[in-house]
Protein 1
Amino acid sequence: MKILVTGGTGYIGSHTVVELQNKGYEVIIVDNLSNSSADIVDNIQEISGIRPLFEEFNLINREKTADFFKRHNDIMGIIHFAAFKAVGESVQHPLMYYRNNLDSLVNILQGMIDNGIPNIVFSSSCTVYGQPDELPVSENAPIKKAESPYGNTKQISEEILSDTAKTSDLNVIALRYFNPIGAHESAIIGELPLGVPNNLVPFITQTAIGIREQLSVFGNDYDTPDGTAIRDYIHVVDLAKAHVIAVDRMIEKNMNKQIEIFNLGTGNGYSVLEVIKSFEKVSGQKLNYKIVARREGDITQVWADPEFSNKELGWKAEKGIDEMTLSAWKWEQALRK
Ligand code: WQD
């Protein structure tokens, strides 16, 4: 069974390719390496003993994408990760985000319809909820106006998928991630932020290893127990495993509806200071940080109600926050060797 993983040399993509190959799927990766490198394919092979197929091109290129699907019309399912995902950058460069994230999806869907490829798992995000009115947040919580062009591309993408499903026999599963962190236990793959990390955990590990001077904590005046913002951090391997379950579900025709949506979170919220405390505990290192002003666009708190995913997918996040921060730290240390 051949599965296409777009963005498969990326952070979540590479961890998902490993899990797909562990499950016996044949994987082909398409990636334009705009935010990753080709040696990730070697790393995946090193972990799972199997080398995925790999083609490098940009999915916003209509002709190349159409040609790809004509050559690989035996693909049984697609997991679509390939997208730009830096919230701040999307505010500065909205058109770059709309073109990249939306044109690539439209080209992929056209290729699926033209070649009879039935199944797509879409990488969505809890950002579609904005700041939920009620916590924990479940799949039927209202979608709020996106706080950034990045978040808007996820909302629009879900609408494109829903509209396309209505007029075709495509099966769609949208997975709404919370905050993916950590790395594979082998420390051979992990989060590779090119440039200054936007996200909390890579900034923590780079500060601890000496690449960054000091972590800035964006605000401690939020309406939370310790004043810092709360997120539902989930181990990237737990997240990757959910994607394999979603592919199995589509291939085994176990879906209840043509388009299904699942929250992928642990159900536990941790504040920035709690993540720092976990990191200091597992690393045995004091972290150098200071409290600064809030970051534009950040919400106060969000964590998932994972009950629907747990029940429907038979999937549950297993790894706790200390295992997440320790795996991130081991990865950072391996990276710098
Ligand atoms: C987490 C917390 C920051 C950096 C991201 C993506 C979003 C989605 C989920 C994909 C916040 C604080 C951060 C720093 C800090 N991913 N922080 N200092 O913003 O929740 O969302 O993951 O869909 O697209 O943006 O994650 O890691 O940036 O921030 O204090 O140097 O850490 O304010 O409270 P976020 P994050």
Note: The chain has two domains: 2-181+233-264, 200-231+267-332.
Protein 2
Amino acid sequence: MDDRTFDIAVIGAGPAGLAAALYAGRSLVRTVVIEGKAPGGQLLNTELIEDYPGFMSILGHELATQMTEQAARFGAEMVYAPAHRVRVEEDGTKVVETDAGEYRAPAVIITAGGNPRKLGIPGEEEYAGRGVSYCAVCDGAFFKGEHLAVIGGGDAAVEEAIFLTRYASKVTLIHRRDAFRASPILVEEAKKDPKLEMLLCTVVEGIEGTPLDTGDHSGKVTHLRLRNVDTDERSTLDVGGVFVFVGFLPNTGLVDRHVAHDEGGYYLTDPYSMMTSVPGIFAAGDVRSQLTRQITTAVGDATTAALAATKWVEERAKGNPDPFGTFMSASREGGWVG
Ligand code: NAP
């Protein structure tokens, strides 16, 4: 093996990628983790984590550091370079093309996460970084004493709205329906927060602010244009900033061939092994089709993926061309869609 040929290549060093690296490393297979930014993924955008067993609470960046050190301790090599494409060669070898060159492995675990979904409304792009944000931990402190809006009704929106009350004079949580998708415990906590107000059945139709074309970078969000979806009544809301948490788009465009996915673009994976419809390509974490996307589920699925990928590589080395053929057949017969 040369220094760019591995048994398993893991793409992405969020909690799923680091857990996969830990388990693959402990299985004594040569593992590389390819990460375009800093290790930790979304842990770095999360201030305090209170739902990871074993820690009453831990800072996101602290958990990221510990997971990275733990993966490295068991031998995983880290490469910091964005991956652009995974090429599958005729003999089944996967070639990960990165800014730092190519890395080859028979098995790849994709744990590349995703990016925040945009609203696609007027003003969103224009005022991005000038009052429109997708990360409360990163940007919240810039809005001390201001009235902020948070858009969305899932766990992220409610959790981050609560978080932002520490900086803002007031936070208005705007959701398009009359019921939250977020877990009831979070919604109850939000309801008790005296600085947090909820505006339900309301959509934001536009983000407006001071002029952007003055050339002095002074453009800044000043208000939102709102519409009540029940009454069609239109109004404006004065805010100093708006935080958008309306879901997530998975990074699933890397592989040079069709990988079965659901209607949201998330990879479908075999429940026993986390293998995708492409033999030797496994997936875990936020790229995977599943009910929920928690740190706990990401590391659990990554554990399965790493152990399955290890077994797959070892069986292939013994000459078995389709190691999981037997127990994969059920889901294959069930039919991959996408
Ligand atoms: P999500 O659960 O998919 O929620 C997205 C929210 O945005 C929904 O309320 C949705 O409204 C709303 N939305 C979508 N498109 C919209 C649009 N164009 N205009 C207005 N609203 C729109 O996404 P998430 O909150 O990012 O969470 C993603 C996953 O991460 C979830 O599985 C969640 O449980 C998990 N998560 C967990 C935690 C935690 O437990 N600590 C924290 C953050 C995230 P509808 O409800 O009407 O569809």
Note: The pocket of NAP is lined by residues 51, 119, 151-157, 159, 176-177, 181, 245-248, 292-294 (CB under 6 Å).
